Automatic annotation (TrEMBL):
It holds the Pfam family Polyketide_cyc2. This is SRPBCC family protein. It comes from Pseudonocardia alni subsp. carboxydivorans. The lineage of its organism: Bacteria, Bacillati, Actinomycetota, Actinomycetes, Pseudonocardiales. InterPro entries: Polyketide_cyclase/dehydratase, START-like_dom_sf.
Length: 142
């Protein structure tokens, strides 16, 4: 298994970060080039567990993800259903209050098939996704 984790602390509250993180279609605003559409609402929360989102990234075709964990203000997890070159790709974002801000941990993991390539891809994904989320929150690093 490969796992990559990126961590950053921002000056925004966990509630503010959560409002950006849990707005799936709003990802388009903080991840330039992405087009995100919810194709199935979750239950009982429309953006919660069971939500399926289609993330368009251009020519390779859309990535289809399903939300697997939804703990408001704390944790959002998802898994890829299609469109990702990594086998059994999963992601998890956890939020932890730190003073008046929030520590954001973005972790991605997948089954390991290639010695180094997939690990580099996973590390890059965790960094890029976390940087986009921080931009979306609008609260710079502390």
């Amino acid at each position: 298994m490969i796992r990559a984790t990126s961590v950053r602390t921002v000056s925004a509250t966990p509630e503010t970060v959560w409002s950006v993180l849990s707005d799936h279609e709003g990802m388009s605003a903080w991840a330039p080039g992405l087009k995100v559409a919810v194709t199935r609402a979750g239950t009982p929360e429309p953006n919660g567990v069971g939500t399926v989102r289609k993330v368009g990234i251009g020519s390779p075709g859309p990535i289809v993800e399903e939300v697997t964990a939804f703990e408001p203000g704390r944790r959002l997890g998802y898994r890829a259903l299609a469109g990702v070159p990594l086998k059994n790709y999963r992601g998890e974002v956890t939020l932890r209050p730190v003073g008046t801000g929030t520590e954001i941990t973005y972790a991605v993991e997948a089954d390991k098939r290639l010695p180094a390539g997939e690990a580099l891809l996973a590390k890059g994904l965790s960094k890029v996704l976390l940087s986009g989320l921080v931009r979306g929150v609008g609260a710079g690093p502390r």
